[in-house]
Amino acid sequence: MSSFIRRTREEAGLTQAELAEKMGVSVVSVQNWERGRNKIDLGRYLLLSEVLNVPIDQLIKEMLIEADNESKHLDNWPRFLFDDETNGIIDTLHLNRAQQDLFGILYIYDSKYVKKEQMDIDTFEKDLKKVPFGFIDKVGSIQFMNQADGLHKVIKHVKADFLLKILKQNPEAEFNIKRLSKYNICEFIDNGYKPANDLEEFEEGYEGEDSLYFRISMKKSQIILPLLKKHGPVHVTDGGWVNPIREDIPEEVFEGILKMCEFNPELWKIGYKDNYNPIYVMEGLDEVTDYYEDNEHKWLWNINKKGEKLLEWLSK
Question: How much is the pTM?
Answer without folding.
Answer: 0.73
